[in-house]
């Protein structure tokens, strides 16, 4: 049987979320991933750093939120979740994510 995760509204993306999202983006206007690379890009998405998977406590935990631009949210973040570590490097070519295999002891 296929898993159905429910509609966006059923998962918590309600008018309360819409308001919280706008407030968060007003306070954190730049994409965190772009900033890590030394770039300046306006954030348009509030991303859950750790996927909440329906856990409303994690959903509303603002320490679990990060501002992202649409390209980073829609592609980079999805790949990171699949791989288990972040992609991307600093200007010297060093991986940004401490969980990257190159950064493991």
TrEMBL record:
Domain of life: Bacteria
Regions of compositional bias (Basic and acidic residues) in chain numbering: 70-84, 91-105
Key words, A-Z: Endonuclease, Hydrolase, Nuclease
Disordered as annotated region, ranges: 70-105
Residue span, HNH nuclease domain: 19-74
SMART domains: HNHc
CDD domains per UniProt: HNHc
Keyword Cell inner membrane assigned: no
Any GO MF annotation of the entry: endonuclease activity
Keyword Nuclease set for record: yes
InterPro entries with a match to the protein in the record: HNH (IPR002711), HNH_nuc (IPR003615)
Family listed: Belongs to the HNH nuclease family.
PANTHER family attached to this UniProt entry: HNH NUCLEASE YAJD-RELATED
The protein's name: Putative HNH nuclease YajD
Organism of origin: Ancylobacter oerskovii
Species classification: Bacteria, Pseudomonadati, Pseudomonadota, Alphaproteobacteria, Hyphomicrobiales
